[in-house]
Amino acid sequence: MGGGLGVPYRGDNDIPPDPSEYARIIRETVGDLNMQLVFEPGRMIAANAGILVGKVLYTKPGAGKTFTIVDTAMNDLIRPTLYDAYQDIWPVEEAKRNQPNIIQDIVGPVCETGDYIALDRALPPLQSGDLFAILTAGAYGAVMSSSYNSRLLVPEVLVRGDDYAVVRPRPSYDDLIGLDRLPPWLE
Question: What is the pTM of this model?
Fold first, then answer.
């Protein structure tokens, strides 16, 4: 029943009802139908269950904005370039979050015009080696990723409290190249 609860990617836009409030509305609307109702909660759960962690490679300060070049690329999370989707970005180091923001483009290393995570974003200054988290990346993140430009897929790690496990390891270049086959006439 229903198409699921959306995700307020900016934290303040189109905030869906709380799941318990959603259940109350459904109960009041449909009443007692004497049947089991099945719900698909949608991206609210899946999106918020995943983050993409990246590292700053280097920065290029400019007069109007800074270009922050990172190791994550459009092949890791294509939503920003494909849909102009907004993804919150936080420095992993909490102390950095309190620094005054600067305007910056967060761009990947693929050398494509569309290789960006965020454009004209007000974020704390990031330096080479800094880790950052791209939030709400659990829905349509990994499933839309690719090995474009021979970039390896990112590993997936499942976390529960202090425990973690790699549930999808990063493939090797041998794995990637091993997918190719020569046709018989070229052997």
Answer: 0.84
